[in-house]
Every structure is written in structure tokens, then in C-alpha cells.
């Protein structure tokens, strides 16, 4: 699903600190189809930077990055936009839910960005309800997101990210705002999604329990991948 070879990324700094800040200095790793991969590393090591590249949000890097058979750097802006819509589901730590909409309308929101024709409202809501059932919040269909617990909000954000049946779900600190019981339930949900829907997961985390639950751990240290192994190796 993902093949990264020699990925280099620097930020250009302005002002008193003008110059280049190298963040990724030749990152190599693979993630196979249907795998659950955790990306770990100290604060500032470049985890979110890497997610932005994988998600097609930033094309300013060197090296080879292939996701679902596409070499991302060769895609035009229109092709990158289609890639983000069709191939990627995003889940952010700060849920990004719209509180003036019901939960089911939040889940169906990605339908409004479809380029290949419109789905009927009925089809949208059927899909949204099916997803809310999958993530275990079927009873919250008409509720406003603001009335949900942190764990329920994260489930809602995951349901929305799955709307277009993405091949790759990328998540930035999905349990960062959750208590340990809610975090454990979200991890169990990720494993179930991987087993039942075959979606590939790449999750940036500081949470050692996510790393331990993952099939593969990608640790970024000093701009390179320090370790790419299974979660159990990290625990040992
Ligand atoms: N747009 C930007 N312009 C300049 N520097 C940036 C930019 N975005 C990130 N950085 C810098 O790049 C480095 C890596 O940042 P990044 O957010 O990828 O790290 P991270 O591993 O995700 O950190 P955290 O765990 O704290 O979220 C940091 O030093 C950060 O300050």
C-alpha cells in the first residue's frame, strides 16, 4: 500500500531563523495492504509532516512515495485532489466535527465533495447510518456532536473518514484526547476495521498501547526510520 524510499523534506524558515530546517532526511519504509501501522517518534520528529505527505496535502519533498500504486509527486493538483477524496480517509486529534449538523449529517459530509455525480439524500443517510453502526454509535444518529463523549466524537470522526471506503485511513494522534478506557476501545475498533474491511491504517501516536497493537511500528528518529517492526518487538 505504501512504499517510501529516501523521503527528504525540509521547511524553509523566514525571519531571524532564515534557512532550511531538514525534518525527514531519507525515510524508507513499507506498509502492506491491510496492515495496521503505527508511526512513533519524539515530539517534533516529523510524524505529522510524514502524514501530510502520505495524505497528498504536501508535495514539496524529494524521494519516492507510492501509495496504492500512485507515485504522489507525479500527480497534478487535480489528480492529488481526486487521490485525497477516493483513496484517503483522514482522522485528526481535534475531531473537526460541525456542531450545527446532526451526527449522521457529519458522517455524510464527504458526499458533498464528490466529483462523480450526486448521491440521493436517502443514499447518503443510509451510508452514514451503516457507518455509525459499524463504529458503535448507532443510537446517536440525530444527536449533535457537542453532546457526545470524547470517545464517541472520535468514533464519529472515524465513521466520516470511512464514508468513501478509503484504501488508507491516516490518523494523527487519534487517542491523544481520550481517557485510557476510551482509547482502548478506539484501538479495538481500528483492529476490527482492519480485519473486517481490509482498510490499511497508518496512525501517528505517542500512545504505547497503539504501537503495541500495531502490525508494524515505524519510528522516526533524527529524520530517518529507526525501527520498522511489529508492535510486539517494541514491547520486548
Ligand atoms: N509549516 C512549517 N514550517 C516550518 N517548520 C515546520 C512546519 N511544520 C512543522 N515544522 C517543524 O518541523 C518539525 C517536525 O514537525 P512535525 O509536526 O512533523 O512533528 P511531530 O513529530 O508530528 O510532532 P508532535 O509529536 O509534537 O506532533 C518541527 O521542528 C516543527 O517545528
From TrEMBL:
Gene3D superfamilies: P-loop containing nucleotide triphosphate hydrolases. The keyword ATP-binding applies. It comes from the Bacteria. InterPro entries: AAA+_ATPase, ABC_transporter-like_ATP-bd, ABC_transporter-like_CS, ABC_transpr_LolD-like, MacB-like_ATP-bd, P-loop_NTPase. Keywords: ATP-binding, Nucleotide-binding, Transport. It holds the Pfam family ABC_tran. SMART domains: AAA. Residues 2-236 form the ABC transporter domain. One of its GO terms (molecular function) is ATP binding. CDD domains: ABC_MJ0796_LolCDE_FtsE (cd03255). This is ABC transporter ATP-binding protein.
